[in-house]
Amino acid sequence: MSGDNEKIVKSDAAWRADLSDEEYHVARAGGTERAFTGAYWETKVAGTYSCRCCGAAVFSSQDKFDSGSGWPSYTAPHSAEAVEEREDRGHGMVRTEIICAKCDAHLGHLFPDGPGPTGQRYCINSVCLSLEPEKGDEG
What we know:
Elements: H1 12-18, H2 21-28, E1 47-51, E2 57-60, E3 64-65, E4 73-74, E5 83-88, E6 95-100, E7 106-111, E8 121-124, E9 129-133
Antiparallel strand pairs: 1-2, 1-9, 3-4, 4-8, 5-6, 6-7, 7-8
């Protein structure tokens, strides 16, 4: 069966039709939600976080930690293949952008100031995620 490794490609109009204005602004146009406003920045529910645009698993609650930044933060992606990194030179900075490997949605940025074991902080916009709670931990 093909499909699992294939990129999801849609027109701009199709993405706009599928997403709210804020979801589109952040995930498809590289925006950022305001700190301490997203649905998941302080969530402690166990489960899998998927890309809001395509449903691919991108992060796990097992790797989530409170960074104090106001955005959900993770020490690692769900799998090595779940996300891709690319250079972001916007806003007068050089950062590492994190995108969904399946649909190229902008998820957030990677910083080298996280806790062990990786020392990485994947700082992700809540609006780009959907949480599927583990059975028995709906909140």
